[in-house]
């Protein structure tokens, strides 16, 4: 008999958030952009205790905890605020997308998606109808700022990927 999956927690969060965890690039770094957004449930309500991990996939970047001075990392982690908001500052990768993992209550495993900073030719984007495609596109929201909301269910649910 197989044991069914169940949600787990609460977790002891020592060292889970760490200083500057959302900063993949230091302030003022040439070409850096900020991605902001909110994590929302199926009813459009904010999720105040989600955790997001962002991976740029850039070779040669430093590890998650190795950022110092002008160093740039290929990984960042950010917990959501009470209003479900999050942010990351990064140098956009050469490839057209960023990998985003979302951990939240009620999820047995993290969900995976992509963040595209531009609507470019891409096999995944090209396979989606326009409404679903739009859920993977970050919208410009000021100079060097993009907005990307993650909707876990419901209308305009973000496209999630299986690996």
Automatic annotation (TrEMBL):
> Entry's SUPFAM superfamilies?
Aromatic compound dioxygenase
Query: What are the UniProt keywords, alphabetically?
Result: Dioxygenase, Oxidoreductase
Q: Which domain of life, per UniProt? A: Bacteria
Q: Where is the Intradiol ring-cleavage dioxygenases domain?
A: 18-96
Gene3D superfamilies noted in UniProt: Aromatic compound dioxygenase
**Family, as annotated:** Belongs to the intradiol ring-cleavage dioxygenase family.
Q: What is this protein called?
A: Protocatechuate 3,4-dioxygenase subunit alpha
């Amino acid at each position: 008999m197989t044991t069914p999956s169940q949600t787990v927690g609460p977790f002891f969060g020592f060292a889970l958030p760490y200083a500057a965890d959302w900063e993949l690039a230091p302030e003022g770094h040439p070409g850096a952009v900020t991605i902001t957004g909110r994590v929302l449930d199926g009813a459009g309500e904010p999720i105040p205790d989600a955790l997001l991990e962002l991976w740029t996939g850039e070779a040669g970047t430093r590890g998650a905890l190795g950022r110092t001075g002008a160093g740039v990392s290929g990984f960042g982690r950010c917990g959501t605020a009470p209003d479900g908001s999050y942010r990351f500052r990064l140098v956009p990768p050469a490839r057209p997308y960023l990998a985003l993992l979302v951990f939240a209550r009620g999820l047995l495993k993290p969900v995976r998606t992509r963040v595209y900073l531009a609507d470019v030719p891409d096999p995944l984007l090209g396979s989606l109808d326009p409404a679903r495609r739009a859920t993977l596109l970050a919208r410009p929201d000021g100079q060097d700022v993009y907005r990307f909301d993650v909707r876990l269910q419901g209308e305009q649910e973000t496209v999630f990927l299986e690996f």
